Amino acid sequence: MVRTPLTPEERERGERLGRLLREARGSRSMTEVAASAGISAETLRKIETGRAPTPAFFTVAALARALALSMDELAGLCEPAGV
Q1: Which H or E run contains 52?
Q2: What's the pTM?
Q3: Cβ pair 20, 78 in contact under 8 A
Q4: Class of residue 49 by CB neighbours under 10 A (exposed 0-12, middle 13-18, buried 19+)
Q5: Taking Cα atoms as reference points, which of 75, 57, 68 lies closest to residue 13?
Q6: How far is CA 44 from the centre of its chain?
Q7: 7-64: per-residue pLDDT in tens?
């Protein structure tokens, strides 16, 4: 199965998600947050840097829970400006 390339908008949304998660993590270590979410630190690193712009829903949900973020708020903040 061939995966279709991401659009620029999808890449931008993934970068916004990564920035939001990084900001929410604050002074907590990447390892600590990743362990709390049940994912690897490398997966979190890829999401935060935009190298994994479309993480799985349950990964995002686990990170939101670990960072005490609302999924609704997180989704809203990741939307393009003007939507």
Answers
A1: none
A2: 0.89
A3: yes
A4: middle
A5: 75
A6: 8
A7: 999 999 999 999 999 999 999 999 999 999 999 999 999 999 999 999 999 999 999 9
